[in-house]
Structure prediction request, 175 residues.
Amino acid sequence: MSISKLARTRVGAKRENAAAAHVLPPTVSSGALLDKGSDRRFRTLVNDLFTIASRMEIVRAHLGRRMGLSGPQYSVLVAVAHLQGERGVRVGTVAQAMHVSSAFIASETGKMARLGLLLKRPNPQDRRGVLLTLEPAGRLKIDRVSAEFARLIADGVKTRPKPRSRARRAPRSAR
Prediction:
């Protein structure tokens, strides 16, 4: 359950021990982010964003596995597909778009080039750099998982981690 839903379910609930309630220090000071002097709505937003990010990471890893890649490699392949245009895309452009280092992109695209998913060729305007484009095999892999990605997003990103096995806890009355 997201924290925003949790907060709504507790609106009418009474606190059992109001004196023991912990009040967190404010996370923001900008009046635009406060609601009647409280940052509760902002905290809810941040926690919901963490939940979304976590679920998107699960989806990315899942789609990467379906393509025989890691989650980050999946993201790199899709970024190249989006950015390549007709001539290809520079390593630095992909790195900037993904907020990672050029060295990381160079390393991961080298691995995917060896798998036949990407083509790395010299940049005719700057022979020190390379241009990245998808190979037909890379396009095919993306096309195969695109429908699944769309379905996962349409379903509200319902791919969730399997619950970990926990030791059974004693009933409350026995504690």
